[in-house]
Amino acid sequence: MRPKGFLAAGLLIVGAALSAAQLITAPVSNPPVTGDISAPPQIESTLRRSCYDCHSNETQWPWYSKVAPLSWMAAHDVALGRKEVNFSEWRSYYPATRRRKLQWIGRAVHEEAMPQWWYRLMHRDAKLTPADRLALERWVESQLSGPENRPSNN
Amino acid sequence: MRRSVKALMLALVAVPMLAIAAVADADHSALEIRFQNHRFAPQTLNVPAGQALVIKVVNASNETIEFESFKLNREVAMTPGETITVRLPALDPGSYDFYDDFHQDVPEGSIVAK
């Protein structure tokens, strides 16, 4: 077979595989919000802009979440994100759980681990500014020192 | 004579290797946390302070869990039947809690360094 023939066969196989992949749908849904987090407007706005797509039941599913195999990856990331922390179910967390999650949020924000870089590539507005980070860190500290989330309140 | 030299050389190579293997194996087998019946066992793991540790964590349940510790800065999702190795630096004396982040009703455990 000539090189052009190989290329054509390869493209045909990739095209067929991608078409077949569309038959395997990913679970891209938004369950009901059962206990949304309560935070000052500035913090809530930042959380919604930078975190809610993966860490809430109010995901704004992007166009690529409807195209396999990207849809599988998006569904996987959101499912994992919701398991890690779900702001839509915040009020159902035990006080000890809330405290742990606040600690991790504070660390992730401080270490600039969130939002993850590949998410920021596709969602430029999700990037946290230094002012956003500072505000979030201060909010986390205030929450951790509040009576509701003190260590003894388990 | 040649045989005894060979035996001696073999012993010189084999004995340290066996010793290293035994120590490594002891490290891996001595410290284990097992998740089963919706709880960690042991719930308190006593470890020596001031020395690096290797802890084997076994998810012997049918649930996906996340072995997590904020103090130890570790979080690892584990599928049913999965075993992971957690390597920790030398710990200061104290208590380091760990928990399953995916199930908040699982009692938390602690690693106590003495």
In short:
The complex is a heterodimer of chains A (154) and B (114). Chain A has 154 residues and is mainly α. In chain A, 56% of the residues lie in helices and 0% in strands.
Give structural notes:
The complex is a heterodimer of chains A (154) and B (114). Chain A is mostly helical and 154 residues long. Chain A has one domain (3-149). Chain A contains seven helices and no strands. In chain A, helix 5 (95-110) packs antiparallel against helix 7. The longest helix of chain A is centred in the N-terminal third of the chain and has 19 residues, at 3-21. Chain B is of the alpha+beta class. Chain B has one helix at residues 2-30; strands at 32-36, 39-41, 44-47, 53-59, 65-69, 74-78, 83-88, 94-100, 109-113. In chain B, strands 3-9-8-5-6 form a five-stranded mixed beta sheet, with no helix packed on it. Chain B has a four-stranded mixed beta sheet with strand order 2-1-4-7, covered by helices on one side. The chains are: A mainly alpha (154), B alpha+beta (114). The A-B interface holds A 80, 83-84, 93-94, 96-97, 100, 103-104, 107 and B 66, 68, 70, 73, 75, 77, 99, 101-102, 104, 108.
Low-confidence runs of at least 5 consecutive residues of chain A: none
Query: What class do helices, strands and sheet pairing of chain B give?
Result: alpha+beta
Q: What is the number of E strands of chain B?
A: 9
Order of helices and strands of chain B: HEEEEEEEEE
Structurally, how many domains make up the residues of chain A?
1
Give the termini separation of chain A: 70 Å
Helix content, binned percent of chain B:
25-40%
Round the mean pLDDT of chain B to the nearest integer and report it: 86
Give the largest chain-chain interface (CB within 8 Å).
A-B, 11 and 11 residues
What is the fold-level CATH name, i.e. the topology of the largest domain in chain B?
Answer: Immunoglobulin-like
Domain module tally of chain B: 2
What portion of residues of chain A is helical? Answer: 55-70%
SSE ordering of chain A: HHHHHHH
Q: What kind of assembly state do the chains in view correspond to?
A: heterodimer
- The total of helices of chain A stands at 7
Q: Return residue spans of chain B where pLDDT drops below 50 for at least 5 consecutive residues.
A: 22-29
